[in-house]
Specification:
It is a single chain. Helices cover 79% and strands 0% of the residues. The chain has helices spanning 6-23, 30-52, 54-61, 65-87, 93-112, 123-155, 163-179. The relative contact order is 0.18.
């Protein structure tokens, strides 16, 4: 059975995940271009609700060090995807390189941090890892609106970028906020 902390996550994954996957393969239109910021802001709104939702806070607080490092390890996958996406011209290079390298850095920091990243662990390392993660993701959101969106309009398609800003970024932001 799904606990109360996981229900909102499940609803969010279905509500934003399925449309983001569908939009990644639909032909580009000006109307679909408006959905990039809409999905980003819906995802961020869901993340903010999670910060104030007591069962979700308790679930994040209950994560152990290994679970947090595993979740942050996905940033390495996202980062590599972005860097590869720049080479394949799926993303604007300036965005892909800065966001991709930021993800790789945060994943590396989480991997090498000597103290526990769990609640009650090394405060200094939690602030360093999660603070760097927050800074990187703020840069990602700003560049998604100021660089990626105009680039997509110029290129004439949406493609793979929808799942990362709608699901990956808000989920990692929530993890970083709860980790501070």
């Amino acid at each position: 059975a799904c606990g109360p902390a996981l229900r909102p996550l499940g609803v969010w994954l279905v509500a934003l995940g399925l449309p983001s996957l569908a939009l990644s393969v639909l032909p580009f239109t000006q109307a679909t271009l408006l959905l990039l910021p809409a999905g980003v802001f819906l995802g961020l709104f869901a993340m903010v609700l999670g910060v104030f939702h007591a069962p979700t806070r308790r679930a994040f607080d209950a994560l152990d060090d290994g679970q947090i490092r595993t979740l942050l390890g996905y940033r390495a996958i996202f980062g590599a995807f972005l860097v590869a996406g720049a080479a394949l011209e799926l993303f604007p290079p300036v965005f892909a390189w800065t966001a991709g390298l930021g993800d790789l850095l945060v994943a590396w920091l989480a991997h090498v941090a000597p103290g526990s990243l769990a609640r009650g662990g090394s405060r200094r390392w939690r602030v360093l890892v999660h603070g760097a993660g927050l800074l990187d993701l703020v840069e990602v959101v700003v560049m998604a609106m100021t660089v990626v969106r105009p680039w997509l309009a110029e290129q004439g398609g949406l493609g793979p970028p929808m799942i990362l800003p709608w699901i990956g970024v808000p989920l990692m932001l929530a993890l970083n906020l709860h980790g501070l």
